[in-house]
Design a protein that fits this description.
Number of helices of chain B: 13
Strand order of the largest sheet of chain B: 1-2
Largest sheet of chain A: 2 strands, antiparallel
Order of helices and strands of chain B: HHHHHEEHHHHHHHH
Oligomer: heterodimer
Strand content of chain B: under 5%
Strand order of the largest sheet of chain A: 1-2
Number of strands of chain A: 4
Largest interface: A-B, 41 and 42 residues
Helix content of chain B: over 70%
Largest sheet of chain B: 2 strands, antiparallel
Shape of chain B: globular
Structural class of chain B: mainly alpha
Shape of chain A: globular
């Protein structure tokens, strides 16, 4: 068998692929965080909880109504997006004039509530979610055996990330959104309903998190804690990438997933902390983040 | 400013509270609970020095409390150190970690500072999870209290209580002194308007770093003391949820007030004690709800509201 640095190439590519899968989740979540932070000025700690709820919606509608994965990909973001609307309308809107730390604390409280309720309802042990039939099995690429579902996750999340990028950078709606980020009062003066735009932005970010949750459901155990474990890593990703650029978030997310995968191959003990180490190094060299602008 | 007004009333309240704390073991207040609450009061006061008086939100303070708790526990149990040396070692470790994390985190301002401290604390958590001497998921159990300075046996709850109380009073007065010193005034200037403080020629980063290290050292003191009292250190002590709880204690009691963190710590620890046997894992939900309510409608906290009410009455 062929080897790379003394590691069988199969295992090596397998870990890289797993890293890429994780990286896609980092990319989708940090993208949502960045879009919400841009317009609302709120660091959404509840993002991990929304991702977790997305996965639970998928599991729940399969158990209760027999609705499969493809339905979940539509229903979960709608449900979680609606929750986002409620959260924004009832709670977040009171905070826009305050110091951003209050937004972080409020969404932290929301994350605790969600986590506690789901733990009470479904217990801490995970639920497993089946891989959809079409995507089962694996393809032999010669140098590695690629599980179809993992390939699909990377492909789908890249597609969604790119669609978000096109929406924000290349359409008229996105232009308004970006203008709103720069100067909400001026945009309002042009007759655009900024509060409504803010509401849909938060709902959109929440929906993005929910899609990530559905995509993740078949590859990991669906547990109430899956969100909070991930969100802290995503924060580090956001600090590394800088929240200024959308493509930057996507690249940083994927890149760090790969770095994590590589660490798992060569020094597994450090794989849970490598992202944080990278963050510390980046902060020392480029405090604004790899793609951030100095303010 | 919401400093406590030096009225006669306020002074009377202080004396009454102090007297109550002194006689607490003899009026039927459960000593373990009082000691635990006082340890968390030290923790919250240390945190308030940072958020309340310097304007820096650290979302990773549990890491400093927890690593000091582990080190003290291990030194006293497995290396046979005396409790006072174990506690000093814990404080030194927390301060050293604070220096490293602080140096990295002060590279960014505002909300990024919170995210960086959270991430660095998570790293410390994973290290604690994997290190052999922390006992992993089981934690570090069976730490003896030992004898203070080789003389005073701390197995006696009353003796232990007075040690904790003495440390708490010392920390409280220390923070009072810092905040009212010229150094503390600069910290407040940084909190109110950082660019202005820079333009006045202050080396803001050094002031912030010192505040961070002081705060983490005191957080470590709280952790070491807690291990000595309870005889164990576990992963809960380094987990991010504890970092969240100390924020809540400070916010609920009153951010930037002296008594606030103490009131908050006693409220939250009391609440957890009361709810633990009654509602199980709904505790997390209740803590979350208090968080949301505090941020939306009660940002001044108990003590802050009291001070505001007094000032309204005077006006």
């Amino acid at each position: 068998m062929t080897e790379i640095f003394g590691i069988p190439i199969q295992a090596f590519m397998g870990q890289l692929m797993l890293g890429l899968v994780n990286g896609s989740f980092y990319a989708m979540l940090s993208l949502g965080l960045a879009v919400i932070f841009g317009l609302l000025g709120i660091v959404n700690f509840a993002h991990g909880a929304l991702y977790m709820i997305g996965a639970y919606v998928a599991w729940f509608i399969l158990e209760q109504f027999g609705l499969n994965y493809w339905f979940a990909l539509v229903i979960a973001p709608v449900v979680v997006g609606a929750m986002g609307v409620v959260i924004e309308r009832t709670l977040l809107r009171h905070l826009y004039k305050l110091d951003p730390i209050y937004g972080l604390l409020l969404t932290f409280g929301l994350a605790l509530i969600a986590e506690g309720v789901f733990r009470e309802q479904f217990g801490v042990s995970g639920q497993s979610y089946p891989v959809p039939d079409v995507l089962q099995g694996a393809t032999n690429l010669g140098f590695m055996v690629l599980p179809n579902y993992r390939a699909w996750v990377v492909f789908a999340s890249l597609l969604i990330c790119l669609a978000t990028w096109v929406l924000i950078e290349k359409t008229r709606l996105g232009a308004t959104l970006r203008a709103g980020t720069e100067n909400p009062r001026l945009v309002q003066a042009f007759g655009i309903n900024v509060p409504l735009m803010v509401m849909f932005t938060y709902a959109g970010g929440a929906a993005l998190a929910a899609i990530a949750g559905v995509l993740a459901a078949p590859v990991i155990q669906v547990t109430p804690l899956m969100g909070s474990n991930l969100i802290i890593v995503v924060f580090a990703v956001v600090v590394i990438g800088g929240m200024g650029s959308i493509l930057g978030s996507i690249l940083t997310g994927l890149g760090l997933g790969l770095v994590e995968g590589l660490t798992k191959v060569f020094y597994p003990e450090a794989s849970s902390i490598v992202v944080f180490v990278v963050m510390a190094i980046v902060l020392m060299i480029r405090p604004a983040g790899l793609f951030g602008k100095e303010k | 400013m919401n400093l406590p007004t030096q009225t006669r009333n306020a002074r009377l309240v202080w004396i009454a509270v102090f007297a109550l704390l002194v006689i607490a073991p003899f009026v039927g207040l459960y000593p373990i609970f009082m000691m635990k609450a006082l340890c968390f009061a030290i923790f919250a006061c240390a945190f308030n020095l940072l958020l309340g008086f310097t304007g820096l939100l650290s979302f990773g303070h549990a890491a400093f409390l927890g690593s000091a708790a582990y080190l003290t526990g291990w030194l006293v149990r497995s290396a046979g150190w005396s409790p006072e040396l174990g506690i000093v070692a814990g404080v030194v470790l927390a301060a050293a970690l604070g220096l490293v994390v602080g140096l990295i985190a002060i590279r960014r301002q505002g909300i990024y500072f919170a995210m960086i401290t959270l991430a660095m604390a998570q790293m410390i958590y994973f290290v604690c999870l994997q290190m052999p001497f922390t006992g992993g998921e089981d934690g570090l159990q069976g730490v003896p209290r030992g004898k203070l300075f080789g003389l005073l046996p701390l197995d006696n709850d009353v003796a232990m209580y007075y040690l904790v109380l003495a440390v708490f009073v010392a920390v409280f007065l220390f923070i009072l002194r810092i905040v009212h010193s010229p150094y503390g005034q600069v910290l407040k200037a940084i909190r109110e308007n950082e660019p202005r403080a820079i333009s006045l020629g202050y080396d803001v980063d050094r002031y912030k770093l010192l505040a961070f290290v002081l705060s983490t050292a005191l957080a470590g003191l709280a952790g070491s003391l807690k291990t000595t009292v309870l005889g164990f250190a576990t992963l809960t002590d380094v987990h991010w949820s504890l970092s969240g709880e100390v924020i809540l204690m400070t916010l609920l009691g009153g951010l930037g007030t002296f008594a606030g963190p103490v009131v908050g710590a006693f409220t939250i620890i009391g609440l957890q004690n009361f709810l633990a046997d009654r509602v199980g894992s709904w505790v997390t939900v209740i803590i979350g709800v208090i968080f949301v309510v505090c941020v939306i409608a009660f940002r001044r906290g108990f003590v802050g509201e009291l001070i505001a009410w007094q000032q309204r009455r005077k006006a």
